[in-house]
Structure formats: C-alpha cells, structure tokens
Amino acid sequence: MLRRLSLSMLATLVYACQGEPAPLKAPTAATPAAESSGAGLSCERLLPKEVRDRFMPGTELREASLAARTVMCTASKGGGQMVANVQADCRATTTLAYWQAHAHELTRTHPAYKDLPGLGRAALGTDKELELYDDDTDCLVTVADYEGRPVLELAREVARVLAPGLLPPPEKGKLTLACDRLLPQALRDQLFAGARLTASSLMPDTMKCKLEWDDRPPETVSYNCVRPYPAAFIKEMKAQYDRNKTPADEVTIGSGGVYTAISGAQSVAFVDPELGCLVTLTRMKGDKAAAVETARKVAGAFGAEAAR
Fold first, then answer.
1. In the CATH scheme, what is the code of domain 179-306?
2. How many CB atoms lie within 10 A of CB 305?
3. For residues 136 and 163, is the Cβ–Cβ distance under 8 A?
C-alpha cells in the first residue's frame, strides 16, 4: 500500500547541482480544504464537493503544499485515519523528460505497476495507487486509496479538471530550468548521442541534467541560478584551485570559464553573461579540447533558451 508522499515530491529522484539526494521539506501544517480560496491549484479545484461525496464520503479533506505549483490533498475520517491522498506536482521541472526518467524508476522499484491507458499522457500503477503525467499542464499526479477502493475513476476525474488555466503563471522575467529545453533533442543527438536524460532539482532555480549510457560513465550538466554570479566568480574559482594546488585552466566561455581534471573527472564551469547562472559540465572521458567545445555548445543552447 502506498503510505508515502509522492515519489515526485519526497521519495526524490532529485539532487542539488553537485550534491547528494535529499527530500524536500514536508509541509509544516495542513489547512482544511474548505478554508482554501479554491483558486488556482487547490484541493477545492482538484476535488470538488461532488467528487469528494462520490469517492470519499464522510471524510475531512486537508490541503498542504510542499512548494509553489504543488498541492497535497489528504482525506481522513474521525480520529485522523487517512482514507485517500491526491497530489499534483506542476513545477517547471516536471517535464516529459522528467516523467520518462521517473517512469523508468517506478517500473524498476514497483514491479506490480503496469501501464494504465486512458489517463493523461501516460500513467503507471495498480487499481489502488497510481501516478499519471498530464502533458497539457506538465503535472505529475499521484492518487492513492488506503481502504482498497479502485482509484482509476477518481484519477480520471482529477485528470479531467487539470487545465493550463488552473495553474498560476510562471514568474515573469525568470528562466524555466527544464533539461529538455536547456538541452534540446537536436543538441543531445549531437553531443550526447544515445544517452538517457534524467532531470532533477533539489531547490528552486537549480537543475541537474544527467546523461546516461549503458556502456560508458554518465555526464552531467548542472545549472545554478540561485543568485547572479559575477564574472569575477570564475577567477575566484581559479584562485581557489591554485591555492589547493589543483591544476585548472581558464577558458573562454560566457563571462569566463575554468577547466579542471581531477582523477580522470573533467569539469568545465562557466558563468552565463546575461543571467549570471553558474553552469557546470562534468564528464569522465575525452580530452580538454572536447570538453571545452561541448561546454561552449551547452552555453549557446542556454543563451538561446534564456533569450526566448
């Protein structure tokens, strides 16, 4: 039985730009759904009264949010006994590429999960718990019933009300960090042919795009836009490498870049001149010239996406 928060939100496929996996913070408190404004992505909109009366009668619905553009709706009976849970994760990182990587992991860790046609773009699960991806809104939805009732019809009702107008608009003037846009298919075919793309993000304004093959080590491109990094930051990085007696070379990318090779691992970091984002390419094969040229093409794609 699914007694957990959504894999997309808490069981976490996510990493910081160069960090270890860690879950997002859980909500500090839940709000009765009746007290919600009902506007935007809310339990009142996802689960209107007629749906609740049909699928979870006699329960209290409470609402919580782990991050912007997410909502968690928990139906409970007296004494706090959890009956059902519906969650929607509609953050900018929840793209088709994210779903494909997430679905691959689900089928590996949940052998009982099967394809469930007719739900959104794609869905996996059983008749008691499931996850679906809605490509009209780029939302990942989790539906679970803890009393053994089938959830397929409830999931269809939730999918039916999902629409782009349900979501708050993205913040103006801000770049959406999504791997399948930062590294579009044509560029991946050129630089990372045959690789599987996994997108992950531990905190807002960061993204880690992992490229994996079956017969060679993975490569990653990490984006850190938490704050604008000045061009001088690369010189500070180079100075730190020098103090640590780590071989490093400055290279011409963006506002400045630095190349290092430590124990066979190559890294090229640079600062985007327009947004001040720190971008880092790491790989285990090839020479310096190839790594720098790959980073330059990644920088070009980033600049094009930032200008959209």
1. 3.40.1000
2. 16
3. yes
Considering only residues 285 and 237, tell me which one the structure prediction assigns the higher pLDDT. 237
* Per-residue confidence band for 9, with pLDDT thresholds at 50, 70 and 90: very low
Domain ranges of the chain: 7-166, 179-306
How are strands ordered across the β-sheet holding 31-32?
Answer: 31-32, 60-64, 70-76, 82-89, 139-145, 129-134, 122-125, 114-115
SS3 240: helix
pLDDT of residue 286: 79
The answer to whether 148 and 84 have CB atoms below 8 angstroms apart is no
Instruction: Give the residues across from 130 on adjacent strands.
Output: 125, 143
8-state DSSP, 147:
T
Give the number of other CB atoms < 10 A from CB of residue 77. Answer: 13
Q: Which amino acid is at 110?
A: H
- Who's near 300: CB < 8 A, 6+ residues apart? none
- Write the CA distances from 108 to 113, 156, 192, 194, 215, integer angstroms: 9, 25, 24, 20, 19
Question: Which of 195, 230, 194, 225 has its CA nearest to residue 212?
Answer: 195
pLDDT digits (tens, 9 = 90+) for 212-231: 999 999 999 999 887 788 87
Average pLDDT over the chain, rounded to whole?
80
3-class state of residue 94 by DSSP: coil
Q: How many CB atoms lie within 10 A of CB 280?
A: 20
pLDDT in tens, 246-259: 889 999 898 788 99
Distance in angstroms (rounded) separating the CA atoms of residues 97 and 82: 32
pTM over 0.70: no
Measured in residues, the chain has a length of 308
